[in-house]
Amino acid sequence: QVQVVESGGGLVQPGGSLRLACVVSGTFFEIHAMGWYRQAPGKQRDLVAHIASGDTTNYADSVKGRFTISKDNAKATGYLQMNSLRPEDTAVYYCKAEIYGRGYVLDDYWGQGTQVTVSS
Fold first, then answer.
1. Quick one: pLDDT at residue 47?
2. What is the DSSP string of 51-73?
C-alpha cells in the first residue's frame, strides 16, 4: 500500500508565502515523478507544477516565477514553495505521486488535499 499525504496549507495574506509538503509512505520501488494540482470551488482540477525523474520541471503559466517545485527522493517527499501569493491562488492543493510499486508497475497516487486560502 502507498499513501500520499500533503501538509502546509493555511491562510496567508496576499504577497505572502507557504511551503507545501507531500510525503509518500508504504511499499514501493521508486518515485518517478510528482505533481501539484489545485482545484478551486466550481472549477476543474488543474496542474500547477510537475517534476519528473531527472528533476525536469514545468509550471502553469499563472505560477511561473512565483512557485518552485522540488523533491527529495531520499525522504520520499515533494515540496511546493509558493511565493507572492495572490487571492486567485486560493484552492485545495493536491499532490500526485507517480510511483513504481508492486511488480514495478507505474501508478498514480493522490493525496487528500490541503486548503490554501489567500486573503487579507
1. 98
2. E-GGG-EEE-GGGTTTEEEEEEG
Among 33, 40, 47, smallest CA distance to 92 is for 40
Q: 74 in helix, strand or coil?
A: helix
- pLDDT for position 42: 94
Question: Which of 16, 14, 13, 66 lies closest to 36 in space, CA to CA?
Answer: 66
Strand, coil or helix: what is 83?
A: coil
pLDDT of 53 reads 84
Tell me the C-alpha distance between 26 and 47, whole Å: 25
Q: CA 25 → CA 2, 55, 81, distances in Å?
A: 6, 20, 21
Beta-carbon contacts of 101 under 8 Å, excluding residues fewer than 6 positions away, are: 2, 27, 28, 29, 107
* Separation of first and last alpha carbons in the chain: 41
CA-derived radius of gyration, the chain: 14
